[in-house]
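Homework-ish question, so no full write-ups if that breaks the rules, but can someone show me the predicted structure for this set?
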Amino acid sequence: MTAPRWACAVLRRVAPPGRAEDVVGDLEEAHRSRVQRRGRVIGSFLTGLEAMDMALTLMRQRVRQRRTADRPSPPNGRPVVRPSRTTWVSWLDFKLGFRMLVRYPGLTVVGGLAMAFAILVGASTFEFLNQIVHPTLPLDDGHRIVGIRVSDAETNRWEHRSLHDLAAWREDLESVQDLGAFRTLERNLITGRGRGAPVSVAEISASAFRVARVPPLLGRPLVEADERPGAPPVVVIGYRVWQTRFAGDPDVIGRTVGLGSSQTTVVGVMPEGFAFPVAHGLWIPFHLNVLDYERREGPAILVFGRLAPGVALNEAQAELTILGLRTAADFPDTHEHLRPEVMPFAQSILGVRGLASLGLLSVNLFLVMLVVLVCSNVALLMFARAATRENEMVVRNALGASRGRIIMQLFAEALVLGIVAAAVGLSVAGLGLRWGLNIFEQQFFEAGRLPFWFDDSLAPATVLYAGGLTVLGAVIAGVVPALKVTGRGVEAHLRRAAVGSGLRFGGLWTGVIVTQVAVTVVFPVTAFLVQRDVAQIRSVEVGFPAEEYLSVRVEMDPQNEPGSAEWSRAEYLARFTATYEELERRLEAEPAVTAVTFADRLPRMYHPHRLIEVDKSGPSAPDSGRGHRVSSVRVDVNYFDVLDTPILSGRGFHSGDLDSEQGVVIVNQSFIDRVLAGSNPIGRRVRYLFFEELRGVFTPDREHDPWYEIVGVVRDLGTSVGDNAKNAGFYHPVAPDSAYPVQMAVHVRGDPESFAPRLRTIAAAVGPTLRLDEIQRLDQVHYDELRFYAFWFTVTVLVSSIALLLSTAGIYAVMSFTVSQRTREIGIRVALGSDQRRVVASILSRPVVQVGLGVVAGGFVVGALAFAGLGSLSLRQVGFVVAYAVFMMGVCMLACIVPTRRALRVEPTEALRADG
Amino acid sequence: MPSESLAEFELLVTLAALRLGPEEAYTVSIAEDIARRTGRSVRRANVYTTLQRLETKGLVSTRLGNPRPERGGRPRRLVAVEPDGVAAVRATTAAIQAMVGELGDVIGEAR
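A: Not a homework solution, just the prediction itself:
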């Protein structure tokens, strides 16, 4: 609940010497009470306003003090008269700008909203990317915490098995201190009553607590003695775990808890917000011993440390490179191609180093383009407004104002609009950022696993960036129209003033309107495609009552005790199978459970595709020359029985299939239609294809993957969702160890979700190392994706609405301007008895052409998108798109009605009096 | 030397600081006290600059308190009214009372 970072930074900068801490402290305190009273969003907004008010006051005070200090003592008591200086922008211009906001409310609302939207998108995206590319660790001297990664120059991949390197660096590396390492483990934390829940545990060197420089809230941190073999197992818990699992018990130190299969003593509690190294809630000692593993073997670890005092990052890199070369010379078999790299800690975790600058550049380019496009439209409106004030400018010029002075006046007016828009945009940008971070967390991490340095408040750099965008917007919206208005010489306008204006909407503005209309066509189509995907996901028909099933991912720890050696893969899988079968047996004995089955992917989940070939003993559909694209699923032998899916032809699986020499598969109906061209599948054979990198072709792996015989057919069972719901797929019968991590489906009587706690209790009783994750109803497995789609849909609808609003306002401005410029001509034509339809046609011809061109350009882009495969459209969908384009054209035409009616009502006598 | 006369807002700030006392008077609490008692909206920036002005005149003095968790570990700058400040308050209120005099009937009793 801290005050916005940018606000604190601004105040710190403008506060008088020695007063920064208490000024910022006041802001923090006021912010806290405001948030409690009014909520986070409004509270943050008001705090931002208060900080700006305070900053302006402090700056004024500073200027006043400086002036007082500089002022010479008046001779003879008379004030010193300073020579006047020519100012390019005066305070009066800004006052005039504020008046314009009130006088032209339509332009203020439309233009302001558009600029606010552009600045909102710009600021929140910039902040979001900066947090990824240039993150700041909220720790003491956080910028000096580094990570060390090793890259393999031969494979161009990271090498994380660095236990031996860590030992060598600890001996020799002087420029990085307190070197340590960690790895993340998922363990069940069992705190009384035998119920466990998975937690993210950092097995971490004790030096981490020195690197982070954060003392524990209670007890002690981990120490080196905890890492020694035979040391009693201990754990340090995070604040949230302490609150949620121990109810904030102040006597928690010394309590014994179950962590996986071991009993561990709590020795410390870390303060709120501490989650070093990434998003961890528990910390156990780093037990991995370098002697247990060969070089480039063992588990993956991440190495961290703190730059030694006075050492820069490049100096540390230089020393590390020398050590790396020495190791490569000593151990060429394993280290010849390894290159250690030291980098800021957060970058070492996210691994974004390579793409960072390029990605940031391209996104910035996009944001600038967005601002340019939006502000071009605002410029259109400003131009129309400036045109109506032409006489004012002519008079100003006659009174001595230069062209530059008039341009600066219009710039100041646009800047005022931009500043108001920026204030609105920035106050909402926090929401946008929070939204983006939520999506980012869902897509790349898990709930609550966002790295601790991500923050939903705006950094000072972002506010500066938004300021830059505002100035850019003001230049486009103010200076460009001003240049047009004053372009051909104000004197010439003065000469023409008596006979009407010479201003015209030229090709630039036509281009702006056409682009805007095109964007207005393209964005809603994108939204339409998103919505179509959502509808397809919702409508996936699996053919059985998915809402009666509980879906749960089952995994198991790879070792018995933290610190003990990990099991071999074979031993581990054997133990997993035994444990899983015990879990299944106990579940089936539960009265609430009807049946249990498993697969590596359940219906409605994402199924990756593989390429296969079919034997030539019968007809098959033509493929792309690279095999047929299908989904394959590994399932329990009772899978179809439990999911109530009948075998349409052939036979189902039986336990004998697991040990059979001849592999068997069951295919779905789409497989017959798409791969076998509708022919009888029973007895046909299929085989996987693999990409052979050297030859660049897909070939069968004859040695490892034999032919599989098709023994049965089932209907489509949700092997795919999205744009290709009718997806060819087949099923292999396997034991649980071959489908690891197993997705278990539990058919429950009554509400499946109410069975979840019981399921956890049973799992904890079967084995404390067994972990259950993602427990949810089977019909809800796509909720995360739907949330993501909803986000995109909202964004595209918002952008479309803004674009439509701008298009309409732009066309309205053009029409109004045209009519006002042609009042005299229209009046004369009407007076001379010209046909009204011809007058209307001559007025409408320009906007019709502009909108038509925009629709055609937008349609072209939509067609290109469809052609590129982003969304193949059916005839009906094309119909929707065309209907939308017609609707959009109608809306734009509506904008022409008011000016046209005004033109036709012109009295000829008035028209003749009009000066344009 | 006659006591310093206070402007209206200076008087309000000094009175609030006197009422809150040297352990509780600081910018935020003074602003809240004035807002609560007078019902007017008070900008903290104004309180801050007024306190600085009063401090320059020697009517109040300030010192840093202890770091506090609700302020992100930052201290408050506590305000104490100096004897000259008390004298200035006395002089200003006396001037106001003298001017009001028997006009109480005309302007109504202050509540």
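Now go work out the reasoning yourself. Hint: Helices of chain B lie at 8-20, 27-38, 44-56, 83-100, 104-107.
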